[in-house]
Design goal:
This protein is of the alpha+beta class. The protein has 38 helices and 17 strands. The radius of gyration is 35 Å and the shape is globular.
Length: about 950
């Protein structure tokens, strides 16, 4: 589109949306602007044609703009340099600059940039020879300028910069202007077909009441170019059907506007769909959006799909075969609501959502190694503390309060009493007793959470769902947080310390006395001291513990010093993120932080949690990624998120209210099978998305599907260890050789290393496929003679377990090595006993006999656990130890009958994919079972094939 047509196009825009720079408050007022846009005000009276000779700056004087206006540095010059790319990462915004000239990245430090431009002797803005200023002469020459030609001589951009320089480059560095609103129109961009275009118009409104069309000075970005592509002038071109946001940035303001192209021609008035189809408030908000897009939601899922989906999502556990049959047979109209209530009372609910909360709060055992004595399982204490509160349905704000405002000692607890309690609690490796403590000090004790910067970033991630890392150095054009915002927020942190040597002032003397009474070398420091105290703790001694301290004296000390010097006493202040100023008056700033979190004015706390929980159930957040609540990353359905956040807050932060609201909605219960209108939908919740099971659910699902009913029940009721209850999540803990840790590592359990949801992986990989196909753990679960479902089926029908599977073969090999070692030890003991008898050493004979009996007991235990008692008996019956030969003939079992095959296939499907087999599946599987050489191996093969299907590994 030519520049002239663009100028004409922009004048036809009418409806507007206005946004506060940091808040995005919407209005429907039409914005009137007195001045024409800047490209018109500074347009040259005449431009040289291609046949004209190249004009010098002096020769251009007569062709300049008519206006006598002096451009403003903050309003015009700085944003123009940003739009031209001068302060980008690849140019002068790089941390080392370019060509000796550096600007603030993306141009949000106006004072620093102004000083850089007018630096003495640099000639970027040369007030002695103004027309030779580099900022005028370099960007117009592709040869002289490393960044290429940025604008043409005589263009409006040229004249903005030249007029400013000719006026002596004015800027008052003491008074940065405040942008009050950024009005963007139209409020929504609608496209009827691909290729349709709409122009965005932007008006800035300043604190002095002045308004100006700044479209030509803005930056534009589309969150999905395939749906809506925007050029540098704000002209948006419609593409594929769907919806996204176009983001506008100017000064410190960021405004997203919805851009959509309906999928079908069914797009009518939203109210028609709402009145007839929306069953819940959640569904009403979704229906409004779907109506705009012309999408028809998918039908509800089947009862079997709902039960499997809800069980895996809410409690991380597969439903049992009996549970599937009972639920499908239930004809109650409200059986799904009843099932939701039942799931929320199961032990797995507390475990599932404790793991979720440990992810976002950072329970990483590697980061907790230097706080408490070395033998203490700090990660277990963290897990159990959260678990108790989720199990008791403690309101979320109270749970967070116990973390944010945690203190080591209770109000009336002395240091010695604190150490006595902690010594007792830390001898319990499960960490269950620690759950009774009111606060989770461990959150503040992590190695990666010590500086004020680390605490500010981690706090924003955990409880606000906001990424502020980049604002440590610069403001991104499409994020609202500036370096100044970060520094002001960071001021609330840093006073809290929880390290291996932190003690309150009144504790230091007691600490020293305890070390003396324990006879601990006072020269021991750091890990050496922790190691020594750990030994004493295991021996039952009461040992001294570090404690969390809050340095509340620094502010008072600064005021006292200033007063003593006769200077004005101004209390230090910090600023809540996007909120009010807070005076640091010497009290614990965490109390003010917590009050702000639970206040109605907080724009993030309830939204962040509601959005994260929604993402767990749908595989995508209303804001996605869920840990990036920002103006540029607008919600796909703002009213829906507001409903969930406000309802959650009004419920008293009742976590179960949020789960019920989501689980009982039609949106959650929709089929994964799309229709022709919503097949491409990924974020409007018109159908369920196929999702790979999380790492913990994958491990537990495979384990319980292949286990007998007794073991499966124990796993479901948390009566035995399972992946969902593994507390630690560091790379070191996941690198352990046990099957659970390895499985969690393969399937991407969160390592909780950084402040990012990306610490957990949901991506599929070849290694995951290989694991399910061929890992020893899977085959052991398939073939275990004591706990596998296949073994239970064998006992049900009187079949003998042959032990011919891969896992049994590996187990047989390991057992043979144990038998060989056992035989050598028995022979050695026998010789020693004979020698002792010959010397008359009866006490030594007795001792050797006890050791022999203990060794015998161990061998019998191993044999029983592995179903190899016969092999051990043959070895013991021999005068010398014999290793059982491989390849012994297998027992011959009777062939499977049709009745047996039908029962086995039905239950195999119910146990794995939570449904009855289809007729063709039943026929194929029964034929496979009947024609197998051995019925036990056939059952194992059937189960193996089912856990390797996409239907099993995906939540649908």
């Amino acid at each position: 589109m030519s520049r002239f047509l663009w100028l004409v196009w922009i004048s036809f825009v009418s409806s507007t949306v206005a946004a506060e720079p940091a808040g995005g408050i919407l209005t429907g007022e039409a914005v009137q602007v007195a001045l024409p846009p800047i490209y018109q005000r500074f347009a040259p009276r005449a431009l040289p044609t291609s046949s004209d000779k190249e004009l010098t700056p002096e020769e251009l004087q007569g062709s300049g703009p008519v206006t006598e206006e002096v451009p403003d540095f903050q309003r015009h010059v700085s944003p123009l340099l940003g739009r031209l790319g001068c302060n980008g990462r690849a140019c002068h915004g790089s941390f080392q600059g370019q060509g000796g000239f550096g600007l603030s990245l993306f141009g949000y430090d106006f004072v620093a940039d102004y000083k850089a431009l007018l630096e003495d002797g640099a000639a970027r803005v040369d007030l002695e020879d103004k027309l030779e200023s580099f900022v005028l002469t370099k960007p117009v020459s592709a040869e002289d300028h490393g960044g290429g030609e940025r604008f043409a001589v005589g263009s409006w951009e040229y004249w903005v910069l030249r007029k400013w320089i000719e006026a002596d480059a004015p800027f008052d560095t003491q008074e940065v202007q405040h942008l009050e609103h950024l009005h963007v129109s139209p409020a929504e961009l609608w496209f009827g077909r691909a290729g349709d275009q709409q122009q965005v118009r932007v008006v800035a409104e300043w604190a002095d009441g002045s308004r100006e069309d700044v479209t030509a000075l803005c930056r534009f970005h589309s969150n999905d170019d395939a749906i809506a592509d925007v050029n540098a002038e704000g002209l948006v071109t419609g593409g594929e059907a769907g919806d996204t946001h176009v983001v506008v940035s100017y000064d410190n303001a960021v405004v997203p506007i919805l851009a959509l192209r309906p999928v079908t021609s069914d797009s009518g008035k939203p109210q028609q769909l709402v009145q007839t189809e929306a069953r819940t408030e959640v569904d009403r908000h979704i229906a409004v959006k779907l109506q705009k897009l012309g999408m028809r939601p998918s039908a509800l899922c089947t009862d079997e799909e709902f039960l499997r989906r809800a069980s895996l999502d809410a409690i991380g556990t597969l439903p049992s075969a009996a549970e599937v049959l009972a639920f499908t047979a239930d004809e109650s109209a409200d059986k799904r609501q009843q099932k939701v209530e039942e799931l929320l009372e199961r032990p797995g609910y507390a475990a599932q959502w404790t793991t979720f909360l440990c992810d976002i709060t950072g329970n990483n055992d590697d980061q907790l190694r230097n706080f408490l004595p070395q033998s203490v399982r700090v990660e277990n204490q963290w897990y159990q503390w959260v678990l108790k509160r989720v199990r008791d349905n403690v309101p979320y704000d109270q749970l967070v309060e116990g973390i944010v405002t945690a203190n080591s000692r209770q109000p009336d607890e002395s240091y010695v009493e604190y150490c006595e309690v902690m010594s007792e609690l830390c001898r319990d490796s499960s960490g269950a007793g620690f759950a009774e403590r009111p606060g989770l000090v461990h959150y503040w004790a992590r190695n990666n959470f010590r500086t004020a910067e680390e605490q500010a970033i981690g706090f924003a991630y955990s409880f606000l769902g906001v990424r502020i890392q980049c604002a440590q150095c610069h403001k991104h054009p499409f994020d609202q947080w500036s370096k100044q915002d970060f520094e002001q927020f960071q001021g609330l942190f840093g006073a809290v310390q929880a390290r291996q040597n932190t003690l309150a002032p009144d504790s230091k003397r007691s600490f020293a006395k305890m070390l003396t009474s324990l006879d601990v070398d006072r020269e021991l420091k750091g890990n050496l001291l922790r190691r020594e105290l750990s030994k004493l703790l295991v021996d039952g001694e009461t040992i001294p513990f570090p404690e969390l301290t809050v340095n509340t004296q620094s502010a008072a000390n600064r005021r006292a010093k200033a007063k003593g010097r006769g200077k004005p006493v101004e209390p230090p202040k910090a600023k809540l993120l996007g909120g009010e100023w807070v005076e640091l008056d010497g009290s614990d700033a965490r109390e003010q932080l917590m009050a702000w979190l639970r206040s109605e004015e907080n724009p993030y706390f309830s939204k962040a949690f509601a959005n994260r929980v929604w993402a767990q159930y749908f595989g995508v957040g209303i804001v996605d990624p869920p840990d990036d609540l920002s103006l540029a990353n607008a919600p796909s359905n703002g009213p829906l998120l507001e409903h969930l956040a406000s309802g959650f807050r009004e419920s008293g932060f009742d976590m179960k209210w949020l789960h019920r609201e989501i689980l009982n909605s039609d949106a959650y219960q929709r089929s994964w099978q799309p229709n022709e209108s919503n097949a491409e939908d990924r974020h409007n919740f018109s159908h369920s998305l196929l999702r790979r099971l999380p790492a913990e659910a994958t491990h537990d699902a495979v384990r319980t599907a292949l286990a007998n009913d007794a073991l499966g029940k124990k796993v479901a009721e948390l009566e035995m260890p399972r992946a969902l209850t593994v507390a630690g999540a560091s790379p070191r803990s996941l690198a352990k050789t046990d099957s659970t840790s390895y499985t969690l590592s393969v399937f991407g359990r969160s390592v909780r290393e950084s402040n990012c949801d990306c610490d957990r992986s949901s991506e599929s990989s070849l290694l995951q496929t290989v694991f399910l196909l061929n890992d020893t753990a899977v085959h052991e679960w398939l073939e275990d003679p004591a706990t596998s479902w296949a073994a239970a089926v064998a006992r049900k029908y009187g079949w003998q377990i042959t032990g011919a599977g891969p896992a049994n073969a590996a187990r047989q090999e390991r057992f043979e090595k144990l038998i060989e070692s056992f035989g050598k030890q028995m022979d050695r003991m026998q010789q020693q006993m004979q020698q002792a008898r010959a010397r008359g050493q009866q006490q030594q004979v007795k001792l050797l006999r006890e050791r022999r009996d203990a060794l015998m007991g161990k061998a019998e235990q191993i044999a029983k656990r592995n179903g190899l008692e016969d092999e051990l008996e043959r070895v013991l019956a021999s005068s010398t130890v014999e290793i059982p030969e491989r390849g012994q003939p297998k027992p011959v079992n009777a062939a499977i009958t049709d009745e047996q095959a039908e029962w086995i296939v039905e239950n195999a499907y119910l146990r794995t994919v939570s449904r009855q087999p289809k007729p063709e599946e039943q026929s194929v599987a029964m034929n496979f079972l009947r024609t197998g050489d051995d019925p036990v191996e056939a059952v194992q093969a059937l189960m193996w094939s089912l856990v390797n299907t996409k239907e099993f590994i995906l939540n649908h």
